[in-house]
Structures are given as structure tokens and as C-alpha cells.
Amino acid sequence: MHTQFATEKHVKYLKRHLGLLPSSQQSHDVNKMAIIFYSLVSLSAIGIDVAKEYGSSAQWICRHRIALESSGSKVALSGFVGSLTLDIPNTNTVSLPNTLFALLVLRLLKCDEFFCSVRNRETICAFVSTCQVAEDGSFTSVLANKHFLPSPLDASDLRFCFIAVEILCLLGCRKLQDYSKYINVDKLIAYILSQQCDSGGFGSYGEPHAGYTSCALSTLSLLESLACLTDEFKELTLLWLVHRQVSDEGCMQLQCKNPFFDEEDHGGFQGRENKFADTCYAFWCLNSMNILQFNTSATLGTFESAKMYLLSRTQNTIIGGFSKNDVDDPDLYHTCLGVAALKLIEGTFNGVLFLPSAIDVSS
Amino acid sequence: MFEMTPKMGEFADVEPLSISTGLPDELCEIMYTDEYRELLGIARSLMARGELSERALRLTGRVIDLAPAFYTIWNYRFDILVSLSKDLSNDEKVLRLNEELDWIDEFTLNNPKNYQIWSYKQCILQNHPSPVLKRELPILKFMLDEDTKNYHVWSFRKWCILFFNDFSNELEFADSMVERDVYNNSAWTHRMFILKNLKPTAVEIKTEVEYIMRKINYVPQNISPWTYLRGIYENFLASKYDNNIVEFAKKFTSNVTDLDFEDPNVKLPDIESSYSLEFLAHIYSLQKTTIINAKRAYMGLSSKYDPIRKFYWDSQISRLH
């Protein structure tokens, strides 16, 4: 059983994703910025100086920023596309997730001049502003094809709320009044509160989900608005989160009839009740617990057993990377979330921003 | 995949807008197939000039098959559809959008993990002159048969129920899913969602509690019905836990909360469910006279029945006075 972090293998695995990719990857073409971000943030968290090794690509990343003109041919808003394949004239192809990934990549590559430009900042903030849904305060990820309106056929949920708010944060918003210049914060908070579940946690229509929970708590944390949650709800959410850790001890062994229970998952986290553990939920749950300030000496055992689960069960020590579980092949997303979870446990990762703590976002 | 490449067919007049690659310092360069280059070249060209035509609609289908994550092609497809149906009579529009719904279902069956489809479908149903819930149920049932806890499918189902304002089938449906897998938490939360909307009578709630008891008797160590039971008391019974439910929960705990934990010789018995003990701990912590029982329950959870969450149980003990 491996319990050491296979640094060299992971570095190789991650670097491979930044090079020439086979055509089997072309279905990910439109979200290439996600591949770039997941690889670079993981490498950076592991300790690779990505600004030094990949800094020369910053200009190519900046080419992915598309300025959208309003009728008077004045640049009204701008954002990033995930791939130059989506740089299409007269069409709104920029998206919030790709904009966030690109901004984080530019931070990792220490391209500070991008953030100094008022025009860059203001036009991207205007894009974020346009994605807010007037009816309920949530966000969509893209605009309508030809209009500066939230896309009528996109989902709007806690993921995009988080992404919208982090973009504003990366572009300089710190206090509520900064955010309020671009978005309706009261409506956004009301939306987040509407996603609270009876049993603690957040999710749609009352079914809590660890991913949405992390998004909701991270958003409130950035907005310095965690106080809008009642102590009772925070307490319930913490209980819900600690229950997501899968265990093979005590009564937890009495689940032989449960088709989604595997005692080998011990220490790992699941995203919802009665599901198998999965690498990425170690991050979403531990980040949520951190935000609720339950990362103390008393919780060491929780974090330690999660670490053991990741290192011994989902880490691939032959080709590098982490997989979702012990069955699948490693993939980039789970590698990134696995590395992030381990660095969060070590205390060197800012889970709310999803960046290594050492990366400066202040300028 | 296609007998004829698009350039050779109905798009011969279209000058493709080629994808640019091989730029300096490019990361993640993909070795695109010829088919991808050609198809995307034409799609980009049509999008740039905003062509809203039947052939453009067909092309979006091909692109979506090849690159389902291409988010803006969905927007483009929708614009085409709106444009093509704006001058249609009501009946013609119904046919047109039904055709689109059929296309979506076909795509969904081939791409069960794609989640863009569900919000697209919502939008089509909202624009449909006469949408029908019955049309949606078979595909939803099929999708949940394949993947019983698919969050997007369950969410879409709940959206549909609210959109059509038809709750009639749902308790039965949730029950059929619980029947199939009593651990399916999505089915339990669906049931709670429906119940909250139905505003049940006191008698119906009593029946509901009996229903939960049967499911717990079947498998006591299952978090879902215990959470649901607490939800029923909090939402419909003002959190007034009666003696019956306390006695019911105690059945699975070998009366461990009556033991004297101060006695160094006390031996903790095996119990059937840590969740029943946790449920009791919660109830006991609500009243001063039973705080001692709550402490014992948490001590049991901490030391024997659910030790991985020891720090949490210990923190509960230290907060009880």
C-alpha cells in the first residue's frame, strides 16, 4: 500500500496534459482552459514554478479574451472563451467558468499587468453583471447568442454564483460595496439561502450535495456574509459534512445490503448520502469544513484519515494522477481535486480561491 | 461516421472559418480530426453570419454529437428553432417542438452524463404551446433506471412537477424507487419535496411515520430514513417527539442510554443502528431532564458506534450542560 505522495509521477502526468493532445481529447476542445487551469494549479500546488516554466504562454492565454461590442461598436463587456475555436465573430461565446479559469491561470503565471488594466477589469465585471438572473439573483454561465442577457437555456445554480463572485474578487472586489457596484448582492444571498436543505448542506430542491455546499459557503465567505446563516444551520451543515466521511468502524459495518457502500472507502468522502467515496468530495467537504472553521487540533483524525484514503486508494503511483475511486483510470479533474485536498490538509492551499496559498492575488 | 462530409453536401457554398492552431506558446494543442476541423469550420462560419436555416439546424445536431460540451452551439440551435417556428401556426409549432423534444430524448439516451441537455429541455418546454408531463415521464424513468441517483435527472423531475403542477404520480414513484433501493437518498429527498408541496393532513403524516418505521425495521443502519423521519417531525409536527417514536428508536440501541457510563466496568452492548442512537441523542438534548441520556448516546457514538466522527460527538458532549 502506497502512502507517499508520488511527486515525480504526478508532475509528469500533469505536464503531459499541457502538451500535444490526441484527437480523443477534442470533445474537450471548447473547455481547454479548464485543462490548462487544472494542470497548472496542481503543478503549482506541488511546488513547480509554473510562472517560470509556462509564463511565456500568458500572451496566448490573453488572446482568449473576447471583447463584445454593443450596437454602437463600443466595447461593452468582455470575457474569456475556453478555446480559440470559440472565437467566432458576432456571437457571444464567452463563459463565466472559462473566464475564471483564465484569470486564475494568469495569476499563476504572474501576469500582473493584465489585472492592472482598468478596461480589462471593468469590461469583465460588466460581463459578470450581465449573467445575473433578474428573477432570482442566481447566475447563468453564458449569455444569449446575440443579446447581452443571461442565456435562456443555461442552468443557473450555485456553481455559477460562486464563479461569478470569485471573478469579481480576482478583479479587485473585497467589501460588499465593491461587489454591489456590479451585482445585486442581496438577491444573490437570498438565492443562496433558498438552496439550504433541511438536513444541513446546500442543493437544489432540498437534496444536499457536497459540491454545491462548498460553492455556497465559498461564495458567502468571499462576500464576508457567512453571518447570514443561522448558528443552527451552520451546526447542521457541519454535522451533514462530517457524516459524508465514509467509515468501516462500529455500526458502519452493518451495511452489507447497501449497494453503494464499500468498507475500503474508509476515510474518504462521499458527495451525498449513501454513495461511494470519491476523490473530489474530499476537497469539497474539507473546504466546507474549513470555511465553517472546523479545522482544529480536534479534527486532525478526520483530515488524517482522508489523506490516507487519497494516498492509498485513489492515487495512481504508476502513471501518476488520481482517479475518482479505486476502479477508474486517473483523470485530470480528480488529480487536481486530489492534490488540492492534500494541500488543503497540509495547510498550503486556499480552498475558497482554489489557489495555492503562496499565490498573490492582492495587486 | 458520416457518409458524406458536409463540405461536399449542402454546405458547398459556405466558406469555412477555419480553427487557428499552431500559435506560439500554445498549450494543450489538440490533434483535431479532419471531420472536426471541417464541421467546426462550417459551424463557425454559419454562426458568424447568423444563418437561421434548416440546414444550420441539422449542422448543430452534428456538432453537438461531436462536441456536446460546445455550450454556445446550444444557444445557436435554440435561436434557429425560434426563428424557424415564429411564423408557424400553433399546431405546426407543436409538431416542430415535439420533433425537437424527440431529438433531445434520443441525444440524452446516447449521452446520459451530459447535463446541458436538461436546462435546454426546460427552455423548450417553456416555449412549447402545449407541453405534456406524460410525455416526459418515460424518459425520466428510463434515465433513473439506468442511474438511480443521477442528481440532474432528479432535479429535472422536480422542475417538471412544479412546472406542470402535477404531484399526483410522485409519492408512488418515490416509493417505487425506495422499494428498489431503500438507501437511495435522492428518492427520500424527492418524497420530502413532494410531501411539503402536498401539505398533508395529520392522518397522512401518521401514515407517513408508519411508512418510515417499516423501512427502518427493514434496515436500521441507513441514514436516509432517519434523516427523513427527523424532517417529518420538524416540518409537520413542530419537532414534538412523542414517546412512541422514542420507544421505536430505542429498540435498535439495546437501551444503551440507560447504562451508567461512570461505572468503569460498564460494557457497551452491540446495537443495530448508530443513526437511531444519534436520533435519540438529538431528542434527549432538547430537554434538561434527559440531557444525561443525550450525553450517554454521544459517548457511545464516540467510543464505539461511530468513532470516525469522534471529534464531533465529543464536541456535542462538551456543549451539553
UniProtKB/TrEMBL annotation, chain A:
One of its GO terms (cellular component) is CAAX-protein geranylgeranyltransferase complex. Its cofactor is Zn(2+). Residues 5-346 form the Prenyltransferase alpha-alpha toroid domain. It holds the Pfam family Prenyltrans. This is Prenyltransferase alpha-alpha toroid domain-containing protein. Keywords: Metal-binding, Prenyltransferase, Repeat, Transferase, Zinc. Transmembrane segments: none annotated. Belongs to the protein prenyltransferase subunit beta family. GO terms for molecular function: CAAX-protein geranylgeranyltransferase activity; metal ion binding.
Automatic annotation (TrEMBL), chain B:
GO terms for cellular component: CAAX-protein geranylgeranyltransferase complex; protein farnesyltransferase complex. Its cofactor is Mg(2+). Gene3D superfamilies: Protein prenylyltransferase (1.25.40.120). Pfam families: PPTA (PF01239). Keywords: Magnesium, Prenyltransferase, Repeat, Transferase. PROSITE patterns: PFTA. Signal peptide: none annotated. Its EC number is 2.5.1.58, 2.5.1.59. GO terms for molecular function: CAAX-protein geranylgeranyltransferase activity; protein farnesyltransferase activity. InterPro entries: Prenyl_trans_a (IPR002088). Belongs to the protein prenyltransferase subunit alpha family. This is Protein farnesyltransferase/geranylgeranyltransferase type-1 subunit alpha. It comes from Zygotorulaspora mrakii.
